[in-house]
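User: Can you predict the 3D structure for this chain?
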Amino acid sequence: MGPWIYLAMAIVLEIVATTLLKLSDGLTKWGWGALSLACYAGCFWVFSPALKAIPMGVAYAIWAGVGIVSVTLIGAVFFGQRLGAAQWGFLALIVVGSIGLRLSVAE
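Assistant: Here is the predicted structure, written as structure tokens:
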């Protein structure tokens, strides 16, 4: 598998893990908490091969940026969390930055 596939898998696992962490209610619902920890472990397992080919700073920035935006959208849609206009604007900047970083890396 290519490094970008590994990075995509790490991003998905991190998003799932963070959502499960929210469902764990501060780790008081241990089943959700255990699943969250397992997803975080899987996330790092598949993130590490991506770092062999993608520059570390670029990979981490894309991983974090896409995760931040995705988890924010999940929070808004499924958990009723509200954001102001400025916050949505700054999230848009994260998206632009993540896309720019991806486009700037040579294959």
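The helical segments are 3-23, 30-50, 56-78, 85-104. The chain has one domain: 3-104.
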